[in-house]
Amino acid sequence: MADVRNGIATRAGAIILAPVGWLANVFDAPLRMLQRRTGSNGMAVFFLAPNMLVFGIFVLFPLVINILYSMTGGGALFLGDRTFVGADQYGRLFSCGSYLDPKSCTEDLFWIAVWNTLAFVVLQVAMMVAVALVTALVLNRELRARSFWRAVFFFPVLLSPVVVGLIWRWILQRQGLLNLMVFEAGGTPVNWLVERNWAFAATIMVSVWAHVGFYALILLAGLQAIPKDLYEAAEMDGTRPMRVFWRITLPLLAPNLLVVLVLTLIRAVQIFDEVYVLTGGGPGTSTLFLTQYIYEVGFASMLRNPGLASAASILMGAVLVVLTLIQLSIARRNEQRGKMR
Amino acid sequence: MSRVAEFLFRRRGGAGWHWTDVFTWFWLIGGLLVMFGPALWLVNSSFKTPAALAEFPPTVLPYVTAEAIVEGYEEPLQLFEVRNDDGSVRVLAEVRRLGTVAQMVDPANPGEIIRVNIRNRTPKRSIAFALDNYVQPFLAFDFFLYLRNSVFVTVVATLITLLTNSMAAFALSKYNFRGRSAVMMLIVATLMVPLSVILVPLYSVISAMGLFNSLWGVILPTVATPTGVFMLRQYMLTIPDELIDAARMDKASEWQIYWRIILPLTAPALAVLAIFSVVWRWNDFLWPLIVLSRKEVYTLQVGLNTYAGQLNVQWHYILAMTVVTMIPVVLVFIFLQRFITTGIAGSGLK
Predict the structure, then answer these.
(1) CA distance B161 to chain A (A)
(2) Rounded to an integer, what distance in angstroms lies between the CA atom of residue B313 and that of residue A165?
């Protein structure tokens, strides 16, 4: 099986590389001259240069000037044209009568977005981990055609967020499939995307639907790495299945569960695409999340305020950095434990 | 009957059904319906006419109401199946309707008006696929342009990604130079910087470079993927250094070593990255939404969102174009799904 896969991959790679094969000869002469100057080890810089140049211009440089942006005001685009305002933008974001009540804040939309995002993160992550775990456990059983069933849950992962949003808008609209089912079952049709709570629930359901296959796959890999002899030993001792689950499966799956937990957290904090297409942040502001707030303040609204958008994005970035550091340290610990084993 | 049931539900070793078996099948069958159902419903709906889409309850098959041109009438008339008192059924065309009584004519004998109670008739319908939904967006709207833009962005970004990432991975795996680990750290660190954190400054960089409303403004910021560099480097570390030493002995230049030895040997990893990159770039939404503000440069995703965001949503076109947008990804799914799922399970990246 692996051979066939490698064969296909090698052939695919060859096809991708063939049309540009002549580049090797064209570039060789000038690069030989360069190599004569730098020495063979010095060529490393040449190989690194394109990637790091793109990296520097489009990731690192923006990251650095983002901090400067967040300390300027006005609607001008370029940093040189903007006026320095110190920490005013942060002050504006945090000027609140009570943080629990967005209406008492100067930037009420920011706090609405913060609380919406928090609620979304808690509910979506819990649901995602639960559904992914159940799916992985089911897929880990002795199944005929397991790879088919694995593919079933993986299918939506590849769909674009816009397609996901439109598929579900079509299902959840007033005359959609879901209401047909409700109607057939004798219930009253609901306007799912117009009622606040249903719309919020829909954003959670849809994002779980779209991504759960990915996390189930990671957990499935973890389950299959658990040594089989542990289960055999438990069976010989006549241990009850529930006890096997709590005492063997769950503790040994814990590292993978943590990875999935943190990954879902990082993605949930940044939720935008599917929700933007599905509800557009509405009805009202009930599904307005942080990234959409940043996008609207920075680009879309009539009162554009790039400085404010920068400040908000830096606050979100800080949360993400903390989450990613946790993830990296977990990954490192798992690696070490793997080596010890 | 019970024999059949026995055969279907027979289990290995003759053991009885545990509740977990029932639950497994419930979850799998439910998953099958929930995961594929919505997309299939969308595909199904995309073949319906606007009139059929507006119907509630919706039908499964795409029906259109039948019409006929009848002598003496300018407009085509709608056809109905009329049930006579004796139970026989005949097909009549409606001329006009007054309250509960319809004035109808027999298409074969258009002179005579027949009055029918509307309770005694049902619209005559036939199955027809509204292929116009697929044709019109390409002719009357700019979808061909959007499709072309999307293909351009996907192909060019993927090629550049493969080239720059593999070059960087080669430098980071096969050379010893000062600051190598610092560069590695930097690349890993940028995993923490998602696009949504640098939207505003990145936009100003793109504008300053004159790339606003240009497809290159969509392509360039995405090509230096840290995941790509990382994945390729891990793979290249497994290629033995002796190969490179032997090539140097034969007077091969460093560029030739990269192009003739390392790249072909990295093909499996390159293929994985290519698949990922195609899916990523094809699906990109937020960044193109910001950079592209003129219709001529929209990608499919941005174009779809724009049409779906209009006040008067023309669902019959939107549905068809959503299906078109789905096609490349579904092809990737059908042919390369196994490849991707094992890749993810192995490396945990997406």
Answers:
(1) 9
(2) 14
Nearest CA in chain B to A161: B283
- Say whether the ipTM exceeds 0.90: no
Q: Is A62 helix (H, G, I), strand (E, B) or coil?
A: helix
Task: Give CA–CA dist A321/B66, Å, rounded.
Answer: 62
Angle at A217 between CA A216 and CA A220, to 5 degrees: 85
- Min mean pLDDT across A31-45, B123-137, B232-246 is at B123-137
Fold classification of B134-347 (topology level): MetI-like fold (1.10.3720)
d(CA A99, nearest CA chain B) in Å: 23
Q: 3-class secondary structure for A121-182?
A: HHHHHHHHHHHHHHHHHHHCCCCCCHHHHHHHHHHHHHCCHHHHHHHHHHHHCCCCHHHHHH
Nearest alpha carbon to residue A23 among B262, B163, B268 = B163
User: How close are the terminal C-alpha atoms of chain A, in Å?
Assistant: 27
- Comparing alpha-carbon positions, the chain B residue that sits nearest to A11 is B267
For B209, the token pair is 């470079």
Return the H-helix or E-strand segment holding A84. Answer: strand A83-84
Q: Is the pLDDT of residue A34 over 70?
A: yes
Q: Is the dihedral of CA A295, A300, A306, A308 positive or negative?
A: negative
| Pair A190, B316: CB distance under 8 Å | no
Closest CB to A272 among B224, B254, B286: B286
Note whether B329 contacts A158, CB cutoff 8 Å. Answer: yes
User: Which of A194, A210, A197 has the alpha carbon at shortest distance from A273?
Assistant: A210
**Taking the domain A90-340, which CATH number applies?**
1.10.3720.10
Q: Tell me how crowded residue B100 is: count the other CB atoms within 10 A of its CB.
A: 9
Tokens at residue A323, please?
């989450």
User: In terms of Cα–Cα distance, which of B194, B224, B214, B281 is closest to A63?
Assistant: B194
pLDDT of B350 above 50:
no
Listed residue (B188, B336, B348) closest to B272, CA to CA: B336
Summarize the confidence of residues A205-230 as an average pLDDT.
Answer: 90
CA atoms within 13 A on the CB side of A83: 6
Q: Which of A160, A235, A266, A322 to mutate: most B Cβ within 10 Å?
A: A160
pLDDT one-digit tens code per residue, A310-323: 999 999 998 888 88
What residues 238-257 of chain B have any CB closer than 8 A to a CB of chain A? 248, 253-256
Distance CA A246, CA A136 (A): 15
Q: Are B271 and A16 inside 8 Å of each other by CB?
A: yes
- Chain A residues whose CB is inside 8 A of the B318 CB are 166
Query: What residue segments make up the domains of chain B, in order of their start?
Result: 2-34, 63-127, 134-347
The DSSP string of A164-227 is HHHHHHHHHSTTSHHHHHHHHTT-----TTTSHHHHHHHHHHHHHHHHHHHHHHHHHHHHHTS-
Residue by residue, what is the 3-state secondary structure of B292-312?
Answer: CCCHHHCCHHHHHHHHHCCCC
B197-223 confidence digits (pLDDT tens) = 888 899 989 988 888 999 999 999 988
Token pair of A294 as six digits? 């940043």
- Interfacial B residues in 204-223 facing A (CB < 8 Å): 204-205, 207-208, 220-221, 223
The domain ranges of chain A are: 2-71+78-88, 90-340
Distance from CA of A105 to the nearest CA of B (A): 23
